[in-house]
C-alpha cells in the first residue's frame, strides 16, 4: 500500500466507498469531493500495488502562519481492507502535515464508532464536546475531538 495525493480520476471510487461505509447517513457525492479538491485541501489516497484506491483522507487548514488550525474532514477505508493499518497510516500522514504547520487538529466522529475513537485517542486526540444529532439522516451524535498543535505538545 502506498499513500499519494488523491487523484480526481478516483473520485468515483471515493463515492463507492462512501456509500459502502456511510449508507445510513449522507455519504459525500462526487461534487463534494470535487469541491474539497478545488478548495485546496490536503487529500491523500491509499493505493494497492495494483493502483486500486482502497482508502482516502482529507485535512483542511485555515488561518495564517503561526495561527493555523486544521480539521480532519474525512478518513475512510474500504471494508475489505480494514484492519490492515491503512486508516492509521492515513491519519498519521494528515497529522504530519498539521505538525509541519504547527496546527491543532479538530474532528468529529460518531460516538458509537469505538474503533475510530480509539484510533484518535491513541494519536493524542481528546474529546472536547458532543454534537447532538450531527449525522443525518440517522441522527447519530458525534464527539468533537482535538489534538494539540505540535508546538503546544512540546510545551505541555
UniProtKB/TrEMBL annotation:
Record Gene3D superfamilies: 3.40.630.30
Keyword Ribonucleoprotein among UniProt keywords: no
Molecular-function GO terms, alphabetical: N-acetyltransferase activity
Keyword field: Acyltransferase, Cytoplasm, Transferase
Keyword Acetylation: no
Domain N-acetyltransferase residues, every copy: 1-150
Family stated for the protein in its record: Belongs to the acetyltransferase family. RimI subfamily.
Protein name, as recorded: Ribosomal-protein-alanine acetyltransferase
Gene name of this polypeptide: rimI
Amino acid at each position: 500500500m502506498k499513500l499519494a495525493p488523491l487523484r480526481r480520476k478516483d473520485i468515483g471510487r471515493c463515492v463507492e466507498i462512501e456509500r459502502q461505509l456511510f449508507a445510513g447517513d449522507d455519504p459525500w457525492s462526487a461534487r463534494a469531493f470535487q469541491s474539497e479538491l478545488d478548495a485546496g485541501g490536503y487529500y491523500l489516497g491509499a493505493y494497492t500495488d495494483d493502483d486500486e484506491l482502497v482508502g482516502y483522507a482529507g485535512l483542511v487548514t485555515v488561518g495564517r502562519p503561526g495561527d493555523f488550525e486544521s480539521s480532519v474532514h474525512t478518513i475512510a477505508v474500504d471494508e475489505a481492507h480494514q484492519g490492515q493499518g491503512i486508516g492509521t497510516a492515513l491519519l498519521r500522514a494528515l497529522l504530519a502535515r498539521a505538525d509541519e504547520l504547527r496546527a491543532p487538529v479538530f474532528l468529529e466522529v460518531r460516538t458509537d464508532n469505538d474503533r475510530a475513537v480509539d484510533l484518535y485517542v491513541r494519536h493524542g486526540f481528546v474529546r472536547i464536546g458532543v454534537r447532538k444529532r450531527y449525522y443525518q439522516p440517522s441522527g447519530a451524535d458525534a464527539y468533537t475531538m482535538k489534538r494539540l498543535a505540535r508546538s503546544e505538545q512540546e510545551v505541555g
